[in-house]
Amino acid sequence: MVPPDKAFADPSVQRTLARHPRPAGGDPLRTIDPPKLSLSGMVLNNQAGTPDQLLIKRKPEWLRAQVPGGPGYQRLKGIMTEHRLHTVCEEAGCPNMGECWSRGVATIMILGDTCTRACGFCNVKTGRPSSLDKDEPRRVAESLALMGLKHVVITSVNRDELSDGGAAIWAETIVRTREACPTMSVEVLIPDFEGNWPALQMVIDARPHIINHNLETIRRMYPAVRPSAKFDRSLELLRRVKEQGGVAKTGIMVGIGEHDDEVLGMIDEIQAATKVIRHSAWGIQHSQEASSGRTKAESRIPNAASTDSCDILTIGQYLQPTRNHLPIARWVHPDTFAMYKAEGLARGFKVVESGPLVRSSYHADHQADGLTDILKDRAKA
User: Taking burial as the number of CB atoms within 10 A of a residue's CB, which of 158, 172, 192, 280 is the most buried?
Assistant: First the structure.
């Protein structure tokens, strides 16, 4: 066993503690009492020789990502550096950064680089954020116009210390970006705003093409993975997006402690909780021609109704960012990811991206082309 004093003296552990000063697993900014759950004792210094802690398992051969590089990657990186923009690609260490940036797809992170929450899986820096940058929406929109992207994903840290959770900055960023880049599809990956539904409405009213809010994991795992969030609150957010005709998207990680049957049960729960009824002025009534068996439209009927629910699901392998984060419980085989995709489509999702390296932004541009009005916008431009 490695003595605790030597373990904490390790330079890599010191860097982790500086970036994540609070116990892994929670301690949200507004919590005055001690955290209800601390995972530090379980995951910190997660190395060989410590019997009560899991080992970081060797990555299987199917987990290989493209090394960042090339002209497209370098051009985007230069613009982001010049305009002082943060990307979740870099902050969270996304394995697909090289592939996405070279294809003209990037994920911008607004509202600073410091999150008020300390989720057990996330590598974004935690603590009390600095002052709010109210000029950020302008800089983001102008920078995106220079980049000439096909699709952008805009995300943010949690800003629970703000009364609106940063929703006003969110809305202005979306509006300015759509004005500056009329042929680019805009996807937003938003926080839960602590259930502040008027704040969410500001984002919906700004009309991004896709609104994504990740559930991250199954309901049972929330105390460890998202202790400052609520599973049902996130489902309600997605339902409200669908209720107003938006394209709703969510995603989860696997390999963090869930079981396959729980993943399939969660797929059903998302579809059921986000289902809304759509009414149209007229529908078409069909009948079968007795002689040929062909379907023919007979008449239009009033007040036709249909159901709609969450549109897009992403499922990817959890990768432990540092020793101070939740350990990996298993490597999920590509065949299992293929099963998740087939089941997700069969159970109501329109698009399912499922694979070891899949993240929220993976192939997001293709999803936007298929499920939004961006193709019409490009044609008009």
Answer: 158
Unique residue bearing structure tokens 């990956």: 189
What separation, in Å, do the N-terminal and C-terminal C-alpha atoms of the chain show? 64
User: Would you call 213 exposed, middle or buried from its count of C-beta atoms within 10 A (0-12, 13-18, 19+)?
Assistant: buried
The reported pLDDT for the residue numbered 368 is 80
pLDDT of residue 123: 82
Are the beta carbons of 250 and 215 closer than 8 angstroms? yes
pTM equals: 0.76
Instruction: Reduce the DSSP state of residue 134 to 3 states and report it.
Output: coil
pLDDT of residue 126: 86
* Cα maximum dimension of the chain: 85
Residue 151: exposed, middle, or buried by beta-carbon count in 10 A (0-12, 13-18, 19+)? buried
Phi, psi of 88 (to 5 degrees): -70, -20
Which pLDDT score is estimated for 238?
98
pLDDT score at 57: 61
287-315: per-residue pLDDT in tens?
444 444 444 444 455 556 788 999 999 99
Whole-number pLDDT of residue 40: 43
Nearest to residue 317, comparing CAs of 361, 356, 262?
356
Angle at 325 between CA 324 and CA 331, to 5 degrees: 135
For the chain, residues with pLDDT lower than 50 are 1-2, 4, 7, 24-54, 282-299
Which spans in the chain are helix H? 4-9, 11-19, 40-43, 71-82, 88-91, 97-102, 136-147, 167-180, 197-205, 222-225, 231-243, 260-273, 334-346, 364-371, 374-380
Rounded CA-CA distance 128/136 in Å is: 19
| Letter string b/e over residues 109-129, b meaning 16 or more CB atoms within 10 A of that residue's CB | bbbbbbbbbbbbbbbbbbeeb
Instruction: Give the pLDDT confidence score for residue 6 in this predicted structure.
Output: 52
CB 188 within 8 A of CB 200: no
Residues 6+ apart with CB under 8 A from 316: 251, 253, 254, 354, 355, 356, 357, 358, 359, 362
